[in-house]
UniProtKB/TrEMBL annotation:
InterPro entries the UniProt entry points to: DNA-dir_RNA_pol_su2 (IPR015712), RNA_pol_bsu_protrusion (IPR007644)
UniProt keyword annotations, A-Z: DNA-directed RNA polymerase, Nucleotidyltransferase, Transcription, Transferase
Subcellular location: Plastid
SUPFAM superfamilies for this protein: beta and beta-prime subunits of DNA dependent RNA-polymerase (SSF64484)
Assembly behavior: In plastids the minimal PEP RNA polymerase catalytic core is composed of four subunits: alpha, beta, beta', and beta''. When a (nuclear-encoded) sigma factor is associated with the core the holoenzyme is formed, which can initiate transcription.
PANTHER family: DNA-DIRECTED RNA POLYMERASE I SUBUNIT 2
Membership in a protein family: Belongs to the RNA polymerase beta chain family.
Native source organism of the sequence: Coccomyxa viridis
Role this protein plays: DNA-dependent RNA polymerase catalyzes the transcription of DNA into RNA using the four ribonucleoside triphosphates as substrates.
UniProt-recorded name of the protein: DNA-directed RNA polymerase
Amino acid sequence: MDPDDFEYLTFEGTLNAFFRDQPGVLIAHQIDSYNDAIETVIPAIIASKENNPLVIKADFRKDGNNLSQHTKEYELHWGKVSVGRPVVQENTGVTRPLTPQEARIKNITYQLNVYVDVMHRLRYRDDSGNFGEWDTEEIPRVLLCRIPLMLGSKFCILGDVGPSTRAELGECKYDPSLTP
C-alpha cells in the first residue's frame, strides 16, 4: 500500500482529500441557485398568468357621486426576458465591460441588467360605451431591473476566464468559486 493512501484512513484525511479534489464544492449550490433564479425563476414570474398581461383601467366617468365606467384600457404584455453582462458607462457615453475589481475600486454595484420585450396596447371607450380598436406598440429590450451579480456565476465576466486572466483583472487566481 502506498503511504499516501493512509491519508484516507482518517476522517480529517478524507475531508481534506474531498475538498482538495473538488474545489468550490461548498459554494456550488449557491452559484447554481443564483444561475437558476436568473435563467428560470425570473422569466417564469414575468410570464405567469397573474402578471401577464398587466391591465390598467383609467379615466372613470362619474355617475352622480359614483365612478362607473372607465374610458381607457391599457395593457402591458411581457415578452422575452434577457440579461446583459455587467457594464459601466463612462462620462463620454462609451459603455464597456465592468470587472468586479473595478466595481470595488469605484464603490459601485457589480450588477447585471435584466431586459424584457414589452408590447403595450391602449384603447378608448367612445360615447356610446363601446371600445375602439387597440393602438399597439412593441418595444424590445426595455430595462426591467438591475440585480447584483454573484461572483463566479455564469453571468460574471470572470466566469469563463483562466486563473492568469483573473489575476490580471485584480482577482485571486486561487478563488475556487471562479474555477471554470
